[in-house]
Amino acid sequence: MTYLDELQKLKTLMDDGGITAEEYKELKARILSGTDGYSDGEPAEESTAVVSNKTTAPKKGIIAALIAVAVVAVAVVVVFMVVLPGIEERNRVAEEERRIAEIEALNNTRVMEVEELIDAIGTVGLGAKGYDSESKTFRLPVELIEKLEILATQNKLSLNQLVIQCLTYAVDNLEIDSGDDEQ
C-alpha cells in the first residue's frame, strides 16, 4: 500500500468520525515527512499498525448515537411509569371534582325549588302551621288518581298538596243548592 492509499484511509476515517481533525493532521504530517518509516512511497509495518488500530477503534459518533438512544429509551420508560400515571390520576381527580360540583349545583337548585314551593304553599295557606289535619281514606277512580299524579309532578307538588288545593278550590267555589229547586 502506498502513502497515498494510507492518506486516503486517514481521510476516510476522519470523515466517518473515527479520528479527529487533529489526529488526521498529525498522522498526515508523519506520513508526508517520512518519519513514519516510509521509504520509496511504501509505508512501514509500524505505520500500517497505527492506521489499522484507528480503523478498528469504535467510532465516536456511533457511540454517541447509541448513548443518545439509551437516554431516550430511559426517558420513555420514565414517562410511561411515572408521568402518565400521575396525569391519569390528576384527570380522574378533576373528573370526580367536576361530578361533585354538578351534584352540589343540582342539590342547590332542588333546595331552592323546595324553598319556593314552601313559600308558595305558605302563601296559599296550605301546609302552613296553624291548621289541624286528620287522615281520611277516600276511594277515587284510578284515572282520576293518574291525572292528579301527573299534575302534581308537573307542578312540583306532592299528591297530598294537590288534592288539598283541589278540594279547597272546589269547596270555595261550590254552589250550594238552597232547596228551592224542584227535586
Characterization of the model:
The chain is 72% helix and 0% strand. The chain has 6 helices and no strands. The protein folds into 3 domains: 3-57, no CATH class; 60-130; 132-172, Arc Repressor Mutant (Orthogonal Bundle), CATH 1.10.1220. The termini are far apart. Helix 1 (3-16) packs parallel to helix 3 (45-56). The model is unreliable at 43-49 and 125-129 (pLDDT under 50). The protein is mainly α and 183 residues long. It has helices at residues 3-16, 21-33, 45-56, 60-124, 142-154, 159-172.
Give a quick rundown of the structure.
Helix content is 72%, strand content 0%. The protein is mostly helical and 183 residues long. It folds into 3 domains: 3-57, no CATH class; 60-130; 132-172, Arc Repressor Mutant (Orthogonal Bundle).
Task: Round the Cα radius of gyration to an integer and report it.
Answer: 50 Å
SS-derived structural category: mainly alpha
Strand content: under 5%
The profile of the biggest β sheet is: none
